[in-house]
Each structure stands twice: as structure tokens, then as C-alpha cells.
Amino acid sequence: FVSANASGKSVLLFGRTTYEMMASWWPSPMAAQDMPEVAAAMNAAPKVVFSRTLQSADWNNTTLVKDDLVPAVRRLKDEPGPDMAILGSGSIVTQLADAGLVDSLQIVVNPVAIGAGKSLFAGLTKRLDLTLTKSRVFQNGAVVLWYAPR
Q1: b/e string for 126-135 if b means 16 or more Cβ within 10 A?
Q2: What pLDDT sits at residue 10?
Q3: What is the pLDDT of residues 84-98, one digit of tens each?
């Protein structure tokens, strides 16, 4: 599933925190050894990181955008090219959902309860009605849910 998901031809969008985490792992020799197909796809994919504080974005094929998120993504959506996918980066998902710029959501639920953490849609300013379009249950109990905004 992870290999198939990572092999998409999407432009990956990140906030600073998720970008720094991903950029520290996927180019590493350990990532190439543990998950070679996913590491190759992640390193080759075009990436955009939204940050006002990063001075550079050195991970292969990464563009650093310091502009306001919503207008920048509107411009990207208006341009021809591949779809965009957000991995993690909850605050970006929330801002783009508020602006009506999210076409679909893929949420993975892992069978682990930690009792703390950030709400999935923390900061959402208006109701986001969703329609379940697909689901898949894995042997380990994880579930992936696909939703489309109504």
C-alpha cells in the first residue's frame, strides 16, 4: 500500500515541520535500505514546502514558498501539471480545507491510542462535511479512509 501510494505522480506539499522530518529520513541510507521503492519515489517527487522561517530547502526537487499558503496553492491548482498531495502537515490541510481547496482526503487510522496529540482538524473555522468514497482495512488493524468534501 505504501509503495503504491508513494508511486503517484503528485507534487508533494509540506509545512516546515513535516518537511524537516521527511527530509531527514527519506534521503538517508537507512530509508533506502528499509523501503527502497518508497525512498526513491519520495526523493524523486517534486516537493513544495511552505515556510516563512526556512532559509533553504535542500531536499532533492524541493521548492521553498514563503508566500501566503492559500493564494499560492490557488495559483498552483490553476497551472497545468500533476495533482498535489499533502502528507501530514495538518495546519496546511486545515487552512486549505477552510478555503475550499481540498478535493479529497485520505486518512489512515492506526490501532494505537496515545491519549495526547493534536486534533486532526485543529483550527478549522467552519464545518467540513465529508462523504466516504472508499475504505480499506489492513491485517494489522489499520484502516485507510478516503473522503470527498460535499
Answers
A1: eebebeeeee
A2: 87
A3: 999 888 899 999 999
CA distances to 8, 53, 78, 114 from 82, in Å: 9, 27, 11, 36
Q: At what angle do helices 90-98 and 69-78 cross, to 10 degrees?
A: 70
Q: What is the pLDDT of residues 6-52, one digit of tens each?
A: 666 789 999 999 999 999 999 999 999 999 999 999 999 999 999 99
- Side chain identity, residue 150: R
Q: Which residues of 74-90 are buried (b: 16+ CB within 10 A; e: fewer)?
A: eeeeeeeeeebbbbebb
**Cα distance between residue 3 and residue 73, in whole Å:** 26
Secondary-structure breakdown of the chain: helix, strand, coil percentages, each rounded to the nearest 5 = 35, 25, 45
Residue spans of alpha helices (H) in 35-87: 36-44, 69-78
Which residues are CB-neighbours of 80 under 8 A, at least 6 positions away?
none
